[in-house]
Amino acid sequence: MRRGVLAAIFLCSLLLPGCSTSRGFETKEIRQVASIPERFLPVAGIQLEDGACKSPLVDPEDGTEITIVESMSGKGYYKAPNGKYGLKGNELLRINCQTGEVLGVVRK
Questions:
Q1: pLDDT band with cut points at 50, 70 and 90 for residue 21
Q2: Whole-structure pTM value
Q3: Are 36 and 61 in contact (CB under 8 A)?
Q4: Which of 18-22, 59-63, 67-71 has the lowest mean pLDDT?
Q5: What single-letter DSSP state applies at residue 95?
């Protein structure tokens, strides 16, 4: 019996850290940036639909591509080229995947 309890505790310790990432997704701190397009667009031939996050997305003003790192519940974290949009090395763009609207900048 004791061996089974220890095995259960061990399995939980392996699984719970992965779950904490999901819980942190919605609560990551957001900051706004002034020098960024209002929204990003999918590449030619792809449409934003059903809240599914597409990658890459394109800046309609200068063609810069951003790529998805993580997504959940119709929102995604996208990586931009180093220094673009005033992002620091530990920051990502948070995008509404259904509209391409920029929600802000978050820490990784």
A1: very low
A2: 0.72
A3: no
A4: 18-22
A5: E
Distance of CA 21 to the CA centre of its chain: 12
Alpha-carbon separation of residue 25 from 10, 20, 47, 56, 75 (angstroms): 25, 9, 24, 20, 9
Strand order in the sheet with 57-58: 30-31, 102-107, 91-96, 75-79, 65-72, 57-58, 41-42
Q: Mean pLDDT across the stretch 42-66?
A: 91
3-state secondary structure of 102: strand
Residue 104 parent element (H or E)? strand 102-107
Tokens of 38: 């209002």
Q: What DSSP line would sit under 15-74, residue for residue?
A: HHHHHHHHHHHTTS-EE--SSS-SB-EEPTT----TTPPPSSEE-TTT--EEEEEEEETT
Beta carbons of 85 and 38 less than 8 angstroms apart = no
pLDDT score at 25: 52
